[in-house]
């Protein structure tokens, strides 16, 4: 064997050893990189799931805040209405007392008017109770109940009955115009049905 052939054999064997060594090192490095990639991907999925959970919590919290704000506004409106009613009623009573001081006929008129004021107060108290009961149900009569559960339908029907009763009481006692805002805001203006197949 001559020197050139020995060099070629040695060179080819060294090249094979280097190639095998590089392949082993490359495979090991690729394995580490792949494991790191999978770990990063798993962390990314966990962060995405946490972000979704956070958005759900945020939405639920905002919805609760909106509901609480609406309830507070309704209570403020009721309180304002009660204060206005009390002021009007006290003004009526004061003016009726002034009129009653002249003679018996005027006293009889005062008595009749006072009875009417008391009757209207009782009616308004009943009307306020009905409106409060309706509002506490939280039902929108304009919403389509979409073939809802029997409980939801019962709740809807109860709210509709209370609204109708309040409307009838107000109309029968000449108070419809005074409480028109409530009836207009909560009245049923959309009629829909549930088609069951």
Structure characterization notes:
The protein is rod-shaped and about 150 Å long. It is mainly α and 197 residues long. The chain contains four helices and no strands. The protein has helices spanning 3-100, 104-137, 150-172, 180-186. The chain has two domains: 1-80; 122-192, no CATH class.
Terminal CA distance: 96 Å
**Number of DSSP-assigned strands:** 0
Which sheet architecture does the biggest sheet show?
Answer: none
**How many structural units, i.e. domains?**
2
Q: Could you tell me the radius of gyration in angstroms? A: 41 Å
Structure keywords:
197 residues; 2 domains; 0% strand
Describe the SSE topology.
Layout (H helix, E strand, L loop, with lengths): L2 H98 L3 H34 L12 H23 L7 H7 L11
Helix pairs in contact: 1-2, 2-3
Sum this structure up briefly.
With 197 residues, the protein is mainly α.
């Amino acid at each position: 064997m001559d020197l050139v052939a020995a060099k070629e054999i040695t060179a080819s064997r060294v090249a094979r050893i280097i190639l095998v060594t590089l392949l082993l090192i490359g495979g090991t490095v690729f394995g580490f990189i792949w494991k790191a990639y999978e770990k990063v991907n798993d962390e990314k999925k966990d962060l995405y799931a946490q972000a979704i959970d956070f958005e759900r919590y945020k939405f639920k919290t905002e919805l609760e805040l909106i509901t609480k704000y609406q309830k507070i506004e309704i209570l403020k409106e009721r309180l304002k209405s009660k204060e206005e009613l009390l002021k009007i009623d006290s003004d009526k009573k004061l003016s009726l007392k002034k009129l009653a001081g002249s003679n018996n006929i005027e006293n009889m008129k005062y008595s009749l008017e006072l009875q009417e004021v008391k009757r209207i107060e009782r009616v308004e108290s009943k009307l306020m109770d009905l409106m409060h009961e309706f509002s506490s149900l939280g039902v929108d009569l304009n919403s389509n109940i979409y073939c809802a559960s029997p409980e939801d339908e019962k709740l809807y029907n109860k709210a509709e009955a209370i609204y109708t009763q309040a409307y009838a009481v107000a109309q029968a006692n000449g108070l419809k115009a005074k409480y028109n805002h409530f009836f207009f805001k909560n009245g049923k203006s959309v009629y829909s049905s549930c088609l069951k197949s």
